[in-house]
C-alpha cells in the first residue's frame, strides 16, 4: 500500500482535536486528514494503452454482456473479437452488438481453441461447472483470463487452475467485483489507515431478498448444488472474499450452520399446483408467484431471451412459464440450496468474523459492521458511518450505485490495464488472492454438512502466492 494511503500521527491528532460538538465532517476534509486519496473511483496506476486489449467471450449470458459491455463504452481500451455461446439467439445478438465476424462466432467453448490464438485474452462467463476446462485450455494456449466467480465448483479444480496459472505465468483475474466497489474501497483505505484502530471483529450480512432467492436459487440455474455449486460458493464467495480482504489476515477456522427451511414440499400451501400457470388457487396471494414476478411485474426477464418486438412479450413470457423451471411452484422444485446460513470465522491474531446469508428479506445490499479498538464502522453498501470512540462523533460517506456497488466496470478497467500492460499488480482480485476465499467457502460447506469446525488450509506453495 502506498504511503499516501497511510494515516500520519499529525493528521490523526488533528482529526481528534477537530472531532468535537455535533458536527458531521465533510468527507473530503476527513480523507485529507487521514492522508487518504479521496477519489477511490480511479486506480492511480492506470496509464494509457498502446492499443486496445482484444478478448473472446465464452458465455454471452447476463454476466458476459456486462463484461462485454465495457468495450462498447470504451472501445479504445477493449475490443471483443470472438464469442462462444450455444444459444443461437444470444450468439447472434451479442455478435451483432460487437460486430464480430462470422468466422469468430462459435457454438461452444471447445471450438474457440480449435483455431489459432486470435486475441489477447478470454473472458469466461460460462456456467459454474464449465469454468475449469476452458480456463485450463486457455492458459495452455497463452491467453490471459478474466474468470467469473466461482473459480471452479470444487477445491481440487481451484487448486489445479492456480497451479496452471503459475506454470504458464498468465494473468488471471477473478470477478470478485465487490473489491472494486467505491464503498468497500473506501472502507479498506480507512482500515489500512488505522482509522478505527486495530480491527477486532467483523459482522457481515448478505440479504439476498426473497424474490432474488426464488428466482436464482429455487427456480433458477443455481437451484441444485450438486449440478452447480453450493450457495456459499456460488453466491457468497463474494462475501468470504470481502471479509478476508478487509481483515487482511489468514483464515484459520470456520464453523457454519444453515439449511433449507422453507422452499420445500412440506410448506406447499393447500390449493397450490406444480406450476403457477396451472390454476393455482393461492397464486394471487403468494409472494413467489411466477405470474406476478415475470408476467405482471415484468421482473428479471433477461433469462427468457424474449423477442425484440415487445408486443410479442406477453405470449412469450407465458410460454416460458409453462415450459421452464421459472414457472414452477417454489415449494415443488428439486432445489437443495440452504435458504439461510451463518458462518463463524477465526483469523490470525484472534480476529473474529460472523457472516449471515439470508433469503427472507425485503431488501438487497450487504450490511457490514466493523469493530475496532478506537472506533467502529457501520454500512449498507450505499452509506457508512465511522464513529470515533474518544469523541463519539461520526464521519459519513454515501454513494448510490448498482447491485454490485459500482464494481463491475471498475473491475473491467483494472483487468484491461493489467492485460494491456502485462502487470498483474493492477488487479485487486488476482487468482492468488482469490483462492483463499473459495477454500473458506468449501470449509464452510463441509462444516454445515458434517456439524464440524473446519480448518482452512493452504499448502506451503499457495501461502507463498497469497
From TrEMBL:
Domain Gfo/Idh/MocA-like oxidoreductase N-terminal: 56-175
InterPro entries in UniProt: Gfo/Idh/MocA-like_OxRdtase_C (IPR004104), Gfo/Idh/MocA-like_OxRdtase_N (IPR000683), Gfo/Idh/MocA_Oxidoreductases (IPR051450), NAD(P)-bd_dom_sf (IPR036291)
The Gfo/Idh/MocA-like oxidoreductase C-terminal domain, residue ranges: 188-398
Pfam family, one: GFO_IDH_MocA_C
Domain of life where this protein originates: Bacteria
Protein name: Gfo/Idh/MocA family oxidoreductase
Organism encoding this protein: Danxiaibacter flavus
